[in-house]
């Protein structure tokens, strides 16, 4: 009896491998899309961290170490202590131990730059020294500051002599010590190596300080030398005494050896111990600002100060302006960050829509396959799990690759936010196909219902969702208009929500428009128009995602483009207000007679307007001084029209003999002296002219102040009519040639250079670059959404053209058919996007101020940088979408015409 054979199960092909082999092109395209999305998502938070950290470092550099260094100081030891203990408290060993303990009291995230930090002893009183060889500008003796600071050898280079030292222990009775001075101090106070300076000491002979070396600081701008600038640079102090020639005296620093610090106890300098803690800008991060400011506050008057006193002296105190520098940076950052968040929210929405649309289009393409699996008993959970595994095998490695590229491309910044953003993009791509398939096949059907735009009616759930979005959009718009961009995250989504609401509204109007157009199209000759509208009406209702992506992207692009245009306009206006022309040359004395001709010959200069500026003019013989500007009326009128700064008709300012000079005045001057009666104006040289205010303007190009009088230069006395300023008009004025032409006595300012200075801040320029990249990314993904929707329908369109060509449709009619079929949605998105962008900007502009991102905080006068609709930002993205839609349709018609009908039509093809 033979052996019974066991039944062998039929081989089952693995699902994932089979699907990847069946559609390698689609898998590769998904991998590329996910990698690109993950790369952009991971790069965004690191790019923001990078420019914010650079902005913080620049803010600390501009604040200077004398303001940012944390200065911990303690008075001299108690006078009741024995002399030995008092001297020991000032020696380097004791100060170094306390310095190490003070570093331990600094709380995170405040990082200390130990290379630039120092400790030592300095006199708080600067005594006058009697040595007659020291310079005395007005007869007052020079004063010196005695300082014994650690690390002198590491931070200075000896130019002459040697470093000071103490050969034996020093105390309050030591008669002589050694010191060094910097090269700047030696030059100003005429100190040479070997010189002896006698510092008065009460009850004993003066302390002799012998200069043994002249030093050159290795890093003069570092905190070691700049926390107390007197250490490196002497000061010529001016006393507040009445008279034209006030009393002045020199004040310089003598740098003692650290071991010689106890000698200060025997002088009247009232020595104090100090520990200077310089913050390390390279280790400070902008995202730690919320923790950094409390840490500084705790040092000034909090637990950290108590810990510092416990390890140094109970009378110790902390002084620093670091908190003010951080507060100024925080205000600037809080004005810029919400604007960048608006662009990021719009771009993220477009990217999410494109990823969801990719999954939705894949589910539509495989509708018959998935419906068959459900009919054969596949569970919804099992089907979604298989689709998730199929997508994750491609998306997860691609997302990891994109994240790695982002980390390499933007090396600075935090890793966790980048990983979170890339992970969110990857998970969205993985979940799009399973969710769409589960939603479409939650019910097993024998036949698929029609889901075209013209037949599907909005469900109650959709209506409720749309009304919810409408309420959210209204709340976001109202919040942004009332509170500005400083509100919550919903405010940042206001432009996006406006675009989403507009997209949903247009989707409801789309079928109505198609029905309206179907009647007139049916009466036209030929079937192309009617067939194109019928095809447009048979578009699947899933086209909501492409339209949503297009409208959101167009709204974001229009909003972002208008923001960038507003920033550029604000900088241009601020540069015009600061310079008053395309370029100008100012001098404190009259310019040479040939200066206007030489300036006119400079490349790029079209016109030169000489102006005689008298800042000491006194109207009505009063005490108030008002700048008086003598101009040539015609040239100055052309300049005011060119700059849009107080334009006026030139004939109203022309001087008439034997009559008061007509004058153009600011509102404050006109209110003070009236516009009806003439009044005299006393000039700086004692001469006088009579003027009558004929015109009033808020601004004028020649001066930036709020008070001015402008008259015809021909009516002024000859000395007062000589020009002291030249205002130039032209394109790309050569600044170097202009400086050479007017000479070194004049200060030259060019509007292009002034404008470039406004964009020099890392925080502002970095935010502008990220904003531009976000808008460009959103526009690119919107075009991708359009292409995906067109590619999805490409096989069906190709089969349709093949069938119609067998019926006699020409190639020209094929092109018209596809173009007309794609036009309704493209035109709807184009017109709706432009209109939505304009509406969003108009609605949100009252709550948006672009001054923080456009201009530095110190710009004066600062123009109002508001948000206005920009025509190019509204038109160009919309036209690009329309052109892309028409171009793809025409290209598809041309390509299908080349392939032939036999290639496209096959027996059993369901297209």
User: Structural class, from helix and strand content?
Assistant: alpha+beta
| Beta-strand content | 5-15%
With helices defined by DSSP (H or I, 4 residues minimum), what is the helix count? 31
| Overall body shape | flat
Share of helix among residues? 40-55%
Mean pLDDT: 83
Round the Cα radius of gyration to an integer and report it: 39 Å
User: Poorly predicted ranges (pLDDT <50, ≥5 residues)?
Assistant: 907-911
Instruction: Determine the N-to-C terminus distance.
Output: 57 Å
Largest sheet at a glance?
11 strands, mixed
Work out the number of β strands: 21
What attributes characterize this protein structure?
single chain; 911 residues; alpha+beta; 53% helix
Molecular structure report:
It is a single chain. By secondary structure, the chain is an alpha+beta fold. The protein is built from 31 helices and 21 strands. Strands 1, 2, 3, 4, 5, 6, 7, 8, 9, 10 and 11 form an eleven-stranded mixed β-sheet that branches. Strands 14-17-18-16-19-15-13-20-12-21 form a ten-stranded mixed β-sheet, sandwiched between helices. Helix 2 (24-63) runs antiparallel to helix 14, helix 5 runs antiparallel to helix 10 (303-311) and helix 19 crosses helix 25.
